[in-house]
Specification:
The complex is a heterodimer of chains A (about 45) and B (about 150).
Chain A lengths: L1 E5 L1 H19 L2 H9 L8
Chain B lengths: L9 E3 L6 E3 L7 E2 L6 E2 L6 H21 L3 E5 L5 E2 L1 H10 L3 H30 L6 H16 L6
Antiparallel strand pairs in B: 1-2, 3-4, 5-6
Helix pairs in contact in B: 1-3, 2-3, 3-4
Classes of the chains: A mainly alpha (about 45), B mainly alpha (about 150).
Chain lengths: ~45, ~150
C-alpha cells in the first residue's frame, strides 16, 4: 500500500491559485484600461 | 472625444447591471432595482489588487520550493515539488503531460503575476501606453487567463 502525505507546498499552491482568482475578481479591467489609455487621469488613484 | 457613463452621470450596478442615474447629493447610493451599494468606481480597487498581487507573489515562492506531496510505497518515498514532478514525467517519457503541468502550474502563474504587476505599475505611475502596447498586453493577459482552468 502506498501512503500519500500532502505537503505544505500544495497548500501554498492552492492558496496561490485562489488568490489569483480573487485578484481577477477584485481587479477592475475597465478602470485599468481607462487609466492606461490616458482617458481618465484619476482612474489610478 | 469618447462619452463615458461617468460623465453622463450614469452608474452601473455590479450586482444586477441596472443603469442608475447618479445622485450628486448622496454619498452612498443604492441601486434602484436590487438595492445594492453602487459606486462610480470600485472603491480601493487598485489598493486591493496590489495587496492580492503581493500575497500571490509571496505564496508563489513556497508553492514552488516546498514539497507538494510525499508518496511512501513499501517504505520508500521522497518529498516531491512541482518541478520534480515535471522532471519525473519527462524521465518517464510523458512529454505532453509534463508540458501541460509545467505550463499550467509554473508558467501561467508566473506570467500572470508579471503581467498584472506591469499593468498596475504602469497605472500607478500614470504612464499611458500606446494603443499597440495596450492591445498586446491585453491579449497576453487574456490568453494566460484561458490556461487557469487547465491547472486542475
Amino acid at each position: 500500500m502506498a501512503a500519500i502525505t500532502v505537503g505544505l507546498g500544495l497548500v501554498c499552491f492552492v492558496s496561490l491559485l485562489m488568490v489569483q482568482v480573487l485578484l481577477e475578481v477584485v481587479m477592475s479591467p475597465h478602470q485599468i484600461w481607462q487609466a492606461l489609455s490616458g482617458e481618465d487621469d484619476h482612474a489610478g488613484d | 472625444m469618447i462619452m463615458r457613463a461617468i460623465d453622463a452621470g450614469i452608474l452601473i450596478c455590479t450586482e444586477c447591471h441596472e443603469l442608475n442615474k447618479q445622485d450628486p447629493d448622496s454619498d452612498e447610493q443604492l441601486c434602484t432595482r436590487c438595492g445594492a451599494l453602487i459606486h462610480a468606481r470600485r472603491p480601493n480597487s487598485l489598493t486591493r489588487t496590489w495587496a492580492l498581487l503581493i500575497t500571490a507573489a509571496i505564496l508563489y515562492i513556497p508553492a514552488n520550493l516546498l514539497p507538494i506531496m510525499t508518496i511512501n510505497s513499501l517504505g520508500q518515498g521522497d518529498p516531491s515539488t512541482i518541478m520534480a514532478g515535471v522532471i519525473q514525467l519527462v524521465q518517464h517519457g510523458m512529454f505532453p503531460i509534463a508540458a501541460v503541468v509545467f505550463i499550467a502550474s509554473i508558467l501561467v502563474p508566473t506570467f500572470k503575476l508579471v503581467g498584472i504587476g506591469l499593468l498596475l505599475f504602469s497605472v500607478q505611475r500614470h504612464q499611458p501606453l500606446s494603443a499597440q502596447q495596450r492591445i498586446v498586453m491585453y491579449r497576453f493577459i487574456e490568453f494566460i487567463g484561458r490556461w487557469r482552468s487547465r491547472t486542475v
